[in-house]
Amino acid sequence: MAKLLKLLLSPPIERPMIPAKFVKQYVIGEYLNSPMAVVVSPLGKFWRVKVENDESGMFFSGGWPSFLAFHGISEGDILLMRYEMNMVFKFKAFDLHGSLKDFNEEDTRIKQSAQLN
């Protein structure tokens, strides 16, 4: 069964911490030291995101800033992430007013071409 994780994006949004209680309850065995996670967007796109562990906890890091930029997710937004197991997450994003952010293929194509130029 999938577990939910809510991330309130406040500084530093480039390296959000995965709460220790969540990690302890749901991230099992060999995945505790996994160097990568996969985040699946509402469009079905897969993002590989580096995971770091230190004495203060587990964090999303490398690849996370480009994931946020690509999806137009910024400080103050809320991510509701569903943990599918094996370091795979699906997400929904909400803006400052609590409205669900809409992702569509056209916006994705525009952002991809802008990043290439």
Automatic annotation (TrEMBL):
<dbReference type="InterPro" id="IPR015300">
    <property type="entry name" value="DNA-bd_pseudobarrel_sf"/>
</dbReference>
<dbReference type="GO" id="GO:0003677">
    <property type="term" value="F:DNA binding"/>
</dbReference>
<keyword id="KW-0539">Nucleus</keyword>
<keyword id="KW-0238">DNA-binding</keyword>
<feature type="domain" description="TF-B3">
    <location>
        <begin position="1"/>
        <end position="97"/>
    </location>
</feature>
<dbReference type="InterPro" id="IPR050655">
    <property type="entry name" value="Plant_B3_domain"/>
</dbReference>
<protein>
    <recommendedName>
        <fullName>TF-B3 domain-containing protein</fullName>
    </recommendedName>
</protein>
<dbReference type="Pfam" id="PF02362">
    <property type="entry name" value="B3"/>
</dbReference>
<dbReference type="InterPro" id="IPR003340">
    <property type="entry name" value="B3_DNA-bd"/>
</dbReference>
<dbReference type="GO" id="GO:0005634">
    <property type="term" value="C:nucleus"/>
</dbReference>
<keyword id="KW-0805">Transcription regulation</keyword>
<keyword id="KW-0804">Transcription</keyword>
